[in-house]
Design goal:
With 430 residues, the protein is an alpha+beta fold. The protein is built from 10 helices and 19 strands. Strands 1, 2, 9, 10, 11, 12, 18 and 19 form an 8-stranded mixed β-sheet that branches. A hairpin with a 1-residue loop joins strand 10 and strand 11. Helix 3 packs across helix 8.
Length: 430
Amino acid sequence: MSKLTYPDYSNICGWKAMLPPRTPRPALDGDINVDFAVIGAGYTGLAVARRLRELRPDARIAVVEATTVGEGSSARNSGFTGTDVLPRNITVEMSEKARLQSKLFSEAFKWLTDIIRENNIQCDMQQVGAIRGAATERGEASVRSVLEVAKKLGVAHQELSRSDIAERIGTDYYRFGLYLSDTWLLQPAALIRGLADALPSDVELYENTPVERIQHQGDWILSTRSGQIRAKNIALANNGFIRRFGYLNTKMTTIYTYAAVTESVPEADRALLGQDQSWGLLPSHRLGTTLRRIGSDRLMVRSLYAHEKELTQSYVEAELRNRFERRWPGLRHVQFEYVWGGTTALTMNGAPWWGKLEDGLYASGGCNGSGIAKGTMLGRHLAELMCGFGDHSVLEQVMGQASFIAPEPFRSIGFRVISALESRKAGLEI
């Protein structure tokens, strides 16, 4: 049996299931030679491919996706994105770092939104802002720290009381909140499908084409089930699964997170969804629960973390229902229509790994759960690095580089211990 070099999910992505069917691009059939090969058609990989085409218009470029676009990890997030970077506390040094990171994200975000507009990508993208919500005293202290940072950086914001939040989202579960306007909500499966379909026509995209191994034989050889790609340069843009090719094993680990979306809430109960027609709430604690209103009549709950392998579907559904019903006890009769998991890659210090691994081999991974704007930015810069274009010293300085992470079994033990401790700290934020 060949080695699995991509997440093989046991459940269907709910975001994709809510969209009309799409015909995938054909799988690779035979052998080809290219100048650049990109492994992974997520936000990072598609940004690499598009920027390569801008810089090298005569090059042959291929993107290889293990499954279908819209079913992988890039479609399985909560659909939040933005450009402002707000650390939980701030010094003069951190203030400047946050400013420079925000500038990098803003440049990439403008590039991304130009692509969306020029190609009429319909992904329900709206700048509605987001609430940082706190359900506990400890959580409120954390959100108030972010509030102080927002004040110091001059970021537009609004403090919210319990009643303010309840009016907006229909639950009085949260005691304090901070509203930040620089957040966009979107349909992530629609966005990633749209970006793939909007690639320049001469960029080759192969779906349902898992790369089983890569070898350096003068050029780089990518072996798939039904053919080989010989490439002068490769970009590994498959996040935590970069490790399956033998690289960055000591830099990142893979985490599964879970989401559920309700069926349509009956019209008689829709007042319980809040007065805002579109809203999102991010938790005060990293293990907390993310919430969204989707369309006019659905709610999304995202929570739970598992290290390296999936949790059982029955356990996930029970845990997510508990979180949902604690926040909206009046909606206990509303069922989940979709429940799914997705992966992200975490690093020990929160910094991504980005750059050159070997001659002709480049990688970007470790998005730490923030993939749309960050992945686009890192992918764009990685393409420039591959072409010897531009100065990336600011990026390297302000984004940092992923630090060492312990090998197994210490990694799994550490995850369990830290998760247990952090879960106790989070309390009702979960």
